[in-house]
Amino acid sequence: MYNLQGVKELYDRICLKSDLDAYRQLFQLMENPLIAFIRALVGAEEVAEELYSDLFVKIWARRHALPLTAHPRNYIYTMARNLALDHLKKERHLQSIEFNEINTLLVQDQAPTPEEQVISKEMVRKIEGAINVLPARCRLIFKMVKEDGFKHKEVAALLGISVNTVEVQMSIALKKVAASVKFKTLV
Amino acid sequence: MNGPESIFYKLLLKKISGTLTEEEKWLLADLLKAYPAFSEAYETVQWLWNEAEVTSLERPREQSNKLLEQHLQRLQDEGLLPEGEEVPVPGTAGRVKKRRYYLLGAGMLLTICLAAWWLLQRQTGEIFIQEERYPNMVMTRPGSRTKLILPDGSTVWLNASSKLTYGDDFLEKERRVQLDGEAFFDVVKNEGKPFIINTAIMDVKVLGTSLNVRAYAGDKKAEAVLVKGKIDIQVKRRPQEHYLLSAYEKLSVAADPDIHPKKQLTISNVEVVGKDSVIAETAWVDNELVFTGEPLGELAGRMERWFDLRIKVRGERLQHFKMTGAFKDESPEEALKAISLITGCRYQLKDHAAVLYDE
């Protein structure tokens, strides 16, 4: 899950105090999820890295003019989304987003001891498998909701789709996950 | 799709997002009662949401560090970093400069840290061993040079636009550093732990000696000059061959692997200049840029780093004009004037960019 409080603190330190150390930390804190997000939009990892660097150049260059929002993460993601769309328009003359594959998602039982685990390792693997074969757009939406903790409304705004679409895609994901372990009752 | 299944998943989604109303709660309970088949799906999704963690495969640590480093370099190149700000790098870097000031207090602190580390390690077993090792890094900007002492006591002078990194396991089995750029090493003798310098083109292995290594990415050649002792050099392109160098010998390797074999690799004696036995290759350590019979085209590259200038040399004649001399306290302007006097060319200097040209 995202450390939202951490993002907010670092963002404020950058904007108010030009804190380079906070900037470095934010760069590393957001790198994994945000590059995954950009890559889902633009396709190639190298391009995503470049755009990520562009994004952070912007953040630093405009640090005095950035809005002191309560949800800096959404603001930063929106900036990233716009950079990705600009890139797509320029490079491929695309007007709409196509969704590309994202990295494999790993599922782990958080139960501290084996005795407390209510579900077998085998089933965890099946669930993980089901998640990773979801269609690209569905998997991205699932990741943003479950791993990154975005609200449906926020995902819809970032991806330029309706809240209804987000919810339909989420339902599909949940249905596939549930179906992957259904065999249990048959055995 | 508006069957009971679709209503069930809509409600389930609301449940896990925490937006289920009181009325919907009852509806969901009724559905689960009416359709026992849904209860398994309900439990699986509940588990996934509350008991499980979903994480993306992380990007490799080296890739992350490299990205941050390149990014900070870019900020600096674009003039966005405040004046006097060192390029901060992940790991212990950025702290390297401070380390020198605190050297006196460091001994005691290190003892304490080591004791704490030992205690912790005893308790937690192998956890510490598995931990990522962050590289230590020192970088210099164009026009600046620095001196540092490595954990083994060896001294390194780092010339302009250079980067030296070493892992936290430096000193464990061997003493290994990575160099991009130019550095003069005064290596403390330690037979049991060879000192190894990795560069893009070659690896230099030493036991205890003074030597200069120049291996800038993008330069036409890489060089190693030995002042005293013995070193063993392995050129990456020719892994089965080793070159042993003695004092005052220089090995020079062309960066371009497609160049004529005879010109690829040369070993020569370095010229000792003047009565103080100054070697052109290592004079920079004493803040002197010395060159003997060096084509202006190559010298210009060294001058760029030395003075933090961009220098263009126009025309074949000037490119190959062999220069001998030294700069010590000269300003860029004075150095360019000297070159123009010697070669009979003209020069222009404006905003850190110079052009040398024939009329």
From TrEMBL, chain A:
Residue stretches making up the RNA polymerase sigma-70 region domain: 27-92
GO biological process: one example: DNA-templated transcription initiation
Record domain RNA polymerase sigma factor 70 region 4 type: where: 126-176
Entry keyword Transcription: yes
Keyword terms: Sigma factor, Transcription, Transcription regulation
Superkingdom of this protein's organism: Bacteria
GO MF: DNA binding; sigma factor activity
UniProt record similarity statement: Belongs to the sigma-70 factor family. ECF subfamily.
PANTHER family cross-referenced by the UniProt entry: RNA POLYMERASE ECF-TYPE SIGMA FACTO (PTHR43133), RNA POLYMERASE SIGMA-70 FACTOR ECF SUBFAMILY (PTHR43133:SF46)
Stated name of the protein: RNA polymerase sigma-70 factor (ECF subfamily)
Organism: Chitinophaga japonensis (Flexibacter japonensis)
TrEMBL record, chain B:
Cleavable signal peptide: none
Domain Protein FecR C-terminal per the UniProt entry, residue ranges: 288-352
Residues of the FecR protein domain: 138-231
Keywords: Membrane, Transmembrane, Transmembrane helix
Gene Ontology terms, MF aspect: sigma factor antagonist activity
Segments passing through the bilayer: 101-120
PANTHER family reported in the protein's UniProt record: PERIPLASMIC SIGNAL SENSOR AND SIGMA FACTOR ACTIVATOR FECR-RELATED (PTHR30273), PROTEIN FECR (PTHR30273:SF2)
Protein name (database record): FecR family protein
Species this protein is from: Chitinophaga japonensis
